[in-house]
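Title: Comparing notes on inverse folding

I've been comparing how different people in this forum approach sequence design from structure. To keep things fair, I'm posting one structure and asking everyone to reply with a full sequence. Here's the target:
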């Protein structure tokens, strides 16, 4: 899955040392990932390489550069050029455009996609946490950019993630229920902002006081009117757009009854594996970088025969 498995030493035991961070920033081989207002800076459709020698100018122009980690012995920083005009940021980075990280999925490796998303999420947090939510005082960056401290009340502010559940609901058929047909079906919904035939897995944010499993049961019932009982974990995915963590599940429905809420989900249907294979062959693809694709394709593989 994209945005996961990033092999970067975040050096959590050393990044609180400002002298060490400064020494890393001054090394000639230090790599810098430049972004502009959540957009990756690209040249010829690929992220600018941030080669040795580029770091100094980018770090100097950045709004509070942050330390991402060590790639072997090479330090990696992220530089937020958002205070520059777009044309200035593009020129400084040696780029020709600024684009959404998610548009680069087909052009970069999973590791590079994870690094770009990590940089994007952390820089987004910094731009939106310049003031304390408790007293309104200005905050200062610490620990290489992994902590902010309020200068007025001393409150410690750490980067936050927003957990969300994403679920593939399946209905296991009774042997006598669908003679001559596939027994197992899965539930996909069409969201209000989606196209007329765009079906995907159901998802939603976890609320305060909920377990992940409780959130799955609530979201499925609220959006599709489907009651689920067994819930099993399938995997997770970093989703820093801006601060999500997608936690994937499979859930078992107790009946085929559907009653969509009409707001978040406007239509929901049960699909067999054969129907989904036909849809994919016809070009109804699912978001390539989402864990939802993994959930759907895993279910199809388990329910394909012959």
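Reply #1:
Here's my take.
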């Amino acid at each position: 899955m994209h945005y996961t498995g990033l092999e970067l030493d975040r050096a959590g035991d050393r990044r609180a040392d400002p002298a060490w961070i400064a020494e890393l920033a001054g090394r000639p081989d230090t790599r810098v990932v430049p972004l502009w207002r959540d957009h990756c800076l690209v040249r010829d459709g690929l992220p600018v390489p941030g080669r040795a020698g580029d770091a100094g100018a980018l770090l100097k122009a950045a709004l509070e550069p942050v330390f991402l980690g060590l790639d072997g012995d090479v330090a990696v920083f992220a530089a937020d050029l958002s205070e520059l005009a777009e044309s200035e940021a593009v020129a400084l980075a040696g780029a020709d455009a600024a684009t959404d990280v998610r548009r680069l999925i087909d052009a970069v490796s999973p590791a590079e996609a994870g690094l770009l998303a990590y940089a994007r999420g952390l820089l987004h947090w910094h731009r939106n946490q310049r003031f304390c939510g408790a007293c309104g005082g200005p905050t200062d960056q610490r620990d290489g950019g992994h902590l902010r401290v309020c200068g007025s009340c001393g409150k410690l502010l750490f980067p936050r993630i927003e957990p969300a559940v994403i679920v593939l609901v399946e209905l296991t058929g009774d042997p006598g229920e669908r003679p001559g047909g596939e027994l197992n079906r899965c539930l996909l919904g069409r969201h209000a902002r989606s196209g007329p035939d765009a079906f995907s897995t159901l998802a939603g944010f976890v609320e305060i006081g909920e377990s992940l499993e409780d959130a799955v049961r609530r979201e499925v019932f609220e959006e599709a009117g489907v009651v689920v009982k067994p819930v099993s974990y399938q995997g997770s995915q970093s989703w820093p757009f801006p601060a999500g963590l997608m936690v994937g599940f499979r859930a078992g429905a107790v009946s085929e009854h559907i009653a969509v809420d009409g707001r978040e989900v406007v239509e929901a249907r049960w699909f067999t594996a054969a129907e989904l294979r036909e849809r994919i062959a016809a070009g109804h693809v699912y978001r390539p970088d989402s864990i939802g694709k993994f959930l759907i394709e895993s279910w199809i593989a388990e329910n394909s025969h012959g």
